[in-house]
Amino acid sequence: MSKTVITSSGNTLTSKFDKRFGRAEFFCLLDEATGQTSFIANEFKDANHGAGTKAAEFMVEQQVNKIISGDFGPKAKELLEKFDVQMVILQEELTIQAIVDRISKK
Amino acid sequence: MARRISPRKVVAPPSFIGFKPYGVITENTDSVELLYEEYEALKLADYDIMNHQEASKLMGISRPTFARIYESARRKIALALVEAREIKTSYGNAWMEKNWFVCNDCLARFTIPKNITARTCPVCHSFNIALLNV
Ligand SMILES: [Zn+2]
Prior knowledge:
Strand content of chain A: 15-25%
Oligomer: heterodimer
CATH superfamily of chain A: Dinitrogenase iron-molybdenum cofactor biosynthesis domain
Number of strands of chain A: 5
Radius of gyration of chain A: 12 Å
Structural class of chain A: alpha/beta
Shape of chain A: globular
Number of strands of chain B: 8
Number of helices of chain B: 3
Helix content of chain B: 25-40%
Largest sheet of chain B: 3 strands, mixed
Strand order of the largest sheet of chain B: 2-4-3
Structural class of chain B: alpha/beta
Bound molecules: zinc ion
Shape of chain B: flat
CATH class of chain A: Alpha Beta
CATH architecture of chain A: 2-Layer Sandwich
CATH class of the largest domain in chain B: Mainly Alpha
Low-confidence stretches of chain B: none
Strand order of the largest sheet of chain A: 3-2-1-4-5
CATH topology of chain A: Nucleotidyltransferase, domain 5
């Protein structure tokens, strides 16, 4: 069962990929088996500190297997590594749809 | 269905991409593919002079598995020497702690946690991946 998160600047598939992890606007949840997506607002994005750590903890709680973002802070990295969550870094300007398509094209 | 291969821990990848024979009388264009874990097994046993028990523990695999990988490494090296073939290193089933990979097709950079057995890009599924920090 593969649960993937893509950091997103909005809550639709046409939204731009958000390169921030802890301070991303939304998290796009993708079920790689079915191709279904849903969006959740990032409630930690305005946290004074530790947005990355809080977001990472949330991912672990949600049993996310893979996270696609533009960068991960050292604390988030450490936590995600410990819980065997795969981290993926993309530097391109893409829409969420484009990333989903790339993953779905097996 | 393909058999699930347990990841083999490799402390350090080989410091080269390949080996090439020189002064060859009859050229053999077929190369030998040496996997990282085979390199590691050979190194532990014949360079670090470790016994198979210790070496298998270090690689996180059973002793029989270690023996099989080690044997395969030796045969490949012998084949390369005798038939003057080039040796190319390949990622195989190794995993390294705190290492990042890059996909040569879509340029995604990523980690491979130890619970993932696939050695492919998590975005475009390409097999054309390489270690980032070699
Ligand atoms: Zn790729």
